[in-house]
Amino acid sequence: MPETPAIDIESWVCPAPLRDAPNIVMGHGGGGAMSAELIEHLFLPAFGPAAEAGLGDAAVITVGDARLAFSTDSFVVKPLTFPGGTIGDLAVNGTVNDLAMAGARPLVLSTAFILEEGTALQDIAHVAQAVGTAALAAGVKLVTGDTKVVDTGHGDGVFINTTGIGVVDPRADIRPQRAAPGDVVIVSGDIGVHGVAVMSCREGLEFGTTVASDTAPLHGLVAAMIDTGADVHALRDPTRGGVAATLNEIARAAQVGVTLDERTLPIPAEVRDACGLLGLDPLQVANEGKLLAFVPPGDAKRVLAAMLDHPLGVRAAVIGRCVAEHPGMVVARTALGGTRVVDLPLGEQLPRIC
């Protein structure tokens, strides 16, 4: 049997923290700077010419006359059940939403379950039922899958991987690189809710009211936005790393600046209070049922109106604009009239939220 060639780590062009931290840490899965460095400086060089340089949340592939969106995601949230949802809802909605952010109507999903030995069958059945219910609600079929079992202590009950395929609306050309100076930035509703819901359940925190996850399938909302005839430039669902990470990724992909108005950010009081108590930035807290849209200024009013008319967009708001200044950087105007840089998070403020 041929020997496996040695990997020359010294040949990597790699900034901290990869070289300074020779092992994987939780921050590498947080959707922030550490995740980006892991992809750019380890995975892409290792994949070589077999990899597409983009490696986005969803790829658009042309097959004949059709454009198909393709996406895969893994879910390791703890606990398995939290206010407003379960890991099963998250697995379906998360992949459906990645397809929707490419302007696609989701069609089919695969589901792969990694189960820890000793997990109660009742708990697995509860998660599986949530997967089926969420798929039915989203209008997608579960067409293939896999199941593996790992030894006790080598998992956390249930991990799920879902892969989805959808058909891209022929009217849509939606990708981060199309964000342009002048674009209006719209968020579809309250931010930071999912992260705080999981944290409150996991840490036993109480805020005087139940904070429920916003997990939901967003393709219907996206379809309503496209139906306005607007030229939607970019869409993203701000999951890991929150709004801050998503805006930074789009700004860097399009080489534009983004200016936010903090006074217009829809942050619920309970989210603001929880983040204030724990020293967290609501812009970096995860969402699972919200989207960010970059649309030309001439289309902004009708897109916002369509969002407000949809059940999943009733709290939509304009939160900022694209600018030619400070390309690749996100800046927020504070309520006191100052400005601050909204940087890409290093790792994950709240690990295991999806």
TrEMBL record:
Q: Which PANTHER family match?
A: CARBAMOYL DEHYDRATASE HYPE, HYDROGENASE ISOENZYMES FORMATION PROTEIN HYPE
Species per Swiss-Prot/TrEMBL record: Mycolicibacterium diernhoferi
**Stated family:** Belongs to the HypE family.
Where exactly are the transmembrane stretches of this chain?
Answer: none
Q: Gene3D superfamilies, alphabetically?
A: PurM-like C-terminal domain, PurM-like, N-terminal domain
Q: Which residues form the PurM-like N-terminal domain?
A: 57-168
- Where the record annotates domain PurM-like C-terminal, the positions are 181-326
Name a biological process GO annotation: protein maturation
Q: What is this protein called?
A: Hydrogenase expression/formation protein HypE
> Lineage in the entry?
Bacteria, Bacillati, Actinomycetota, Actinomycetes, Mycobacteriales
Q: Which Pfam families match?
A: AIRS, AIRS_C
